[in-house]
Amino acid sequence: MNGPLALEEAQERLLALAPPVRIEEVSVDQAHGRVLAVDLRAARTQPPADLSAMDGYALSADADAHSDSGSGPWRIVGESRAGVPFGGALGPGEAVRISTGAHMPEGADRVLLQEDASVEEATLRAGEIPPPGRHVRKRGFDFEEGAQVLSAGSMLGPAQIALAIAAGHASCMVAAVPRIAVLDSGDELVRDPTRCGPGQIPASNGPMLAAQLAPLGVRAARLGPVADDMEALARALSQAEQADILVTSGGASVGDHDLLQDALKRWGADIAFWKVAIKPGKPLLVATRDRPDAPPQVIVGLPGNPVSSFVTAFLFVLPLVRAAMGAAEPLPHSLSVRTREDLPPGGKRREFLRAVMEGQQVRRCATQDSSALMALAGADCLIDRPAGADPVEAGEEVSVWSLRTG
Question: Is 321 helix (H, G, I), strand (E, B) or coil?
Fold first, then answer.
């Protein structure tokens, strides 16, 4: 088999295998984290009328001509509040008490702030008249009916949900969440962390991977832990028949007890590629498996060390799931940040150092071992160190991938 692939080539090849997007209709208020499948156009205009942006007094359009002294007076003839507009039109020299979000009365074109107003009984005066349009939200300034407000491929977060509802939609068409199974394997793994015998450790990778997928709306089916035994692996794989994507952890290398590749081949899977030139995470495996009357399954075999499993899930599994959900930009984005410390030259492989943001600078975690969960739990980003990179001095910029945005 050929040598390890570069990160970008491996990601490109994996995303090309993404299961086809399935579309379903959901309530907008239940669409958080989902990806919009079709463009969304406004079913109404926002604001639906000229509205006041502040509490105060709506003045008639002849305010300048009416007040030679620049202070009024105006006669207060009523009130307009949010949800209860003033019923008439303003005549010369008239004003209406108005609240934020209330409809501007017909004949009014500006709002005098209440803190700039002097009121005695029904007479209003001001030290200075606001110009036309001041403190007024014009009809349709946010969006007009028929305008495209969200594009297909947009991830629906809190602001996008608010926009869709404001645009008059109770439901929307989104990409269905792919069915995902997670299988962790190893003789040493124990499902119950309180019952570890000699030579055993808690099986933490399965729950970790499921938690990484959860923000995308995925409820992964957990199939492990499974012993390093061909029959046990075959039984576990048989439970993944309905999964669009199968994520495995452990057993993907070529040691005496690494049986996953052979088990997958016996199950009918074809290896698409194996090994990526990154650290941690070199022994990444990607395979596909044809199914009758269904699109091919995609299998991503992650390394068993927990940090390696986490980093490769971040770089490969999460983008694959986003692609299967129709995301316009499934891959994570890096940013440039200054390092707080000197960094040594890059090694033979591209390395992702667990690190912590401290203000506007980044500091690598003291421990970089691929089994160190304490360091991983304390990290909020990855420093991207290219293979063979020159040393970096404190204060220089490095490329960083935020783990908070995934």
Answer: helix
Cα 188 off chain centre by = 35
What distance in Å separates the CA atoms of residue 2 and residue 248, rounded to the nearest whole number? Answer: 22
**CATH fold of the domain at 24-45+142-173:** Molybdopterin biosynthesis moea protein, domain 2 (3.90.105)
Candidates 136, 142, 153; CA nearest to 101 is 136
Strand partners, 380: none
Instruction: For residue 337, give the DSSP letter.
Output: E
Domain layout of the chain by residue ranges? 7-22+176-324, 24-45+142-173, 51-137, 334-402
Structural contact between residues 225 and 251, judged by C-beta atoms closer than 8 angstroms? no
| Residue 278: its H or E element | strand 278-279
Burial 311-331 (b: 16+ CB within 10 A, else e): bbbbbbbbbbbbbbbbbeebb
Who's near 255: CB < 8 A, 6+ residues apart? none
> What does the pLDDT profile of the chain (406 residues) look like in tens digits?
568 999 999 999 999 999 999 999 999 999 998 999 999 999 999 999 999 999 999 998 776 665 555 577 899 999 999 999 999 999 988 999 999 999 999 999 999 999 999 999 999 998 888 999 999 999 999 999 999 999 999 999 999 999 999 999 999 999 999 999 999 999 999 999 999 999 999 999 999 999 999 988 899 999 989 999 999 999 999 999 999 999 999 976 655 557 899 999 999 999 999 999 999 999 999 999 999 889 999 999 999 999 999 999 999 999 999 999 999 899 999 999 999 999 999 999 999 999 999 999 999 999 999 999 999 999 999 999 999 999 999 999 999 999 986 5
Other beta carbons less than 10 A from residue 71's beta carbon: 14
Architecture of domain 51-137: Beta Complex (2.170)
pTM of the model: 0.84
Tokens in use for 186? 């190893």
- Is residue 357 helix, strand or coil? strand
Q: Which CATH architecture has domain 7-22+176-324?
A: 3-Layer(aba) Sandwich (3.40)
